[in-house]
Amino acid sequence: MNILFIGGAGFIGASLARRFRKSEKHHIFVVEPAGANVSRLDGLEVDIIRESLTNVEAVERIITEKRIDTVVHLVSTLIPGSDYEDFKRELSDMVFPSIRVMEYCARNNVKFVYFSSGGTVYGNRSTMEPFVETDEMAPISYYGWSKQMMENGILFKNRTEGLRYLIVRPSNPYGHGQNLHGKQGLVAVAIGKIMDGKPVEVWGDGSSIRDYIYIDDLAEIFFQLIDNDVTNETVNIGSGRGYSVNDVLAFLKIISKVDFRIIYENARPMDVSNMVLDTTKMLGKVNISLTPMLDGISTFYKESIETKQQR
Fold first, then answer.
1. Distance between CA atoms of 31 and 7, rounded to whole angstroms?
2. How many distinct helices (H) and strands (E) make up the chain?
3. Among 182, 219, 253, 246, which Cα is nearest to 44's?
4. CA dihedral angle for residue 293, residue 294, residue 297, residue 298, rounded to 10 degrees
5. Strands 200-203 and 262-265, sheet pairing
6. DSSP, res 121
7. Mean pLDDT of the region 53-71
8. Which of 11, 19, 55, 169 could make an S-S bridge to 219, C-beta 3.0–4.6 Å?
């Protein structure tokens, strides 16, 4: 199978590419714009093509010339805290070009796989009841709204043009390769602050619940979904278990043996309070033993320390 990862050099994309290369059953192509950092792909046997999603005609040529069987869409310029101006750019630079790529895939019988967001498309919920794939999408951030738009576009093209698709809704992935100095990803950002001797900033009182999944587990689950040709389905990818922000920080204090300071800021209106995914469908389609949260964070922290010492 020839697989094209659009935006495949990021944290998630590089981990997926690494897992697919292990099987030696798939030829991996990665599309990233000129100037994008592709260092996470160093040492992997993948073909990197420098092109922007906004150049739809070029992306279509790549699909044809490389005889692509499956397109995996990983591109987003937004984060949960993005504002309206960011959202407008996302529509013009990502959503609208993506819909044209969906149309091309439908006409050429190419499967379109989309990485949505289990953490934002469902919206808010006051109870701890896990979100099921059939629950209403009610995002409260521009980031989540853009994901909902993409999902609706995929379903529309499936109804009207027979697009073969797979939508995956991952929870909060964490692990090696994640940016320790970025603006999202609690575990990674907290580790970066600990290593720099800085306090960890938290939006709200730390009671908000999230579903976390170790990046290698995410990659394995996704590989099996593709390898098993799961088609025309929407699948949550998560642990099915929730941890509060304070739980995660307590884990890090135990693991790091550093009594770092925590600064609690006012909660943001675009952040959901509770988010745990129902993984019944996922576990019915793949065979995996998930990494316990404490083990995953411990591995990530130790690898981060080793990487820093090697520099």
1. 6
2. 10, 12
3. 219
4. -150
5. parallel
6. S
7. 98
8. 19
Amino acid at 108: N
Nearest Cα neighbor of 63 from 110, 115, 1 is 110
**Alpha-carbon gap, residue 238 to 290, rounded angstroms:** 9
Tens digits of per-residue pLDDT, 215-227?
999 999 999 999 9
pLDDT at 128: 80
Tally the residues of the chain: 311
Give me the chain's average pLDDT, please.
Answer: 95
Helix (H) or strand (E) holding 84: helix 84-90
Please report, in angstroms and rounded to a whole number, the separation of the first and last CA atoms in the chain. Answer: 37
- DSSP bridge pairs for 32: 50
pLDDT at 39: 95
Run of H or E residues at 59:
helix 56-65
Give the pair of three-digit tokens for residue 7: 């935006």
Q: Is the pLDDT of residue 126 over 80?
A: no
Confidence category of residue 138, pLDDT binned at 50, 70, 90: very high
* C-alpha span between 48 and 4 (Å, rounded): 10
Q: Are 139 and 118 in contact (CB under 8 A)?
A: no
pTM of the model: 0.95
Distance CA 3, CA 72 (A): 7
Among candidates 245, 253, 124, 274, which has minimal Cα distance to 185?
245
* 127 pLDDT above the threshold of 80: no
